[in-house]
């Protein structure tokens, strides 16, 4: 893929995901030397995946386990906390869920069930889940970098919580 094509994909990506804070030039991206190059590499891989070829729709964008509610009497499952909802590749929410269950090696049953539901074609999941998982970890890196730069302690006891989140992202992007 040419540099011009990659730049065009990045421009579209930046516009589509602006709500998620993807900006390689943002000051907070310099909180640690590794963040900007790691995120740039993930964005390059994401562009090569050809985001326009992915099935898009409404994303929750952070389907953490605590966002799911189950009515034990009926078996009905609900998802709360839609404050970060946006439109994008459905594979993003799949990758987010894979991240929360501990990675691809622990997500086989989850991915099989998702494909069996008919929400996404098996070929799309196989082709893109690994790259989208890296993309999800890049989002985590940016999120925790922003929190560190802004001394945001929302939901945690001390700054160490943000450092742990950033260290997890670095480990997964290395």
Q: How would you name the oligomeric state of the polypeptide chains in this document?
A: single chain
Q: Spans with pLDDT under 50 lasting ≥5 residues?
A: none
Gyration radius over CA: 17 Å
Beta-strand proportion: 5-15%
Word description of this protein:
With 174 residues, the chain is mostly helical. It has six helices and four strands; from the N terminus they run ααββββαααα. The strands form two sheets. It has a two-stranded antiparallel ribbon. α1 packs across α2, α2 packs antiparallel against α5 and α3 packs across α5. The longest helix is centred in the C-terminal third of the chain and has 28 residues. The chain is globular. The two termini are 23 Å apart. The relative contact order is 0.15. The model has no long low-confidence stretch (mean pLDDT 88).
